[in-house]
Specification:
- By secondary structure, this protein is an all-alpha fold.
- It has a domain of about 40 residues.
- The longest helix is centred in the middle third of the chain and has 18 residues.
- The radius of gyration is 27 Å and the shape is rod-shaped.
């Protein structure tokens, strides 16, 4: 004779975000092209960091570095 366990009613389990299925975003092969304002702002950050370290450089070098960093 089989003995069955009585069913207990419980609250539904909370699911975490990690368990939920999500749609994957498609990645395009096109590279990100930053705007001139974004490059300018990044070049300004690079400039201030360079000056704080006491290093020499030019605005053109800062601009090229900013472009390279933002484009990946």
């Amino acid at each position: 004779m089989k003995t069955s366990k009585p069913k207990t009613t419980s609250k539904p389990r909370k699911t975490s975000v990690a368990n939920k299925t999500s749609k994957k975003k498609s990645v395009s092969s096109a590279k990100y092209v930053p705007s001139e304002d974004e490059i300018r702002e990044k070049a300004r950050e690079i400039y201030y960091e360079r000056i704080a370290r006491g290093e020499h450089g030019t605005p053109e070098d800062d601009w090229r570095e900013a472009e390279a960093l933002l484009k990946g």
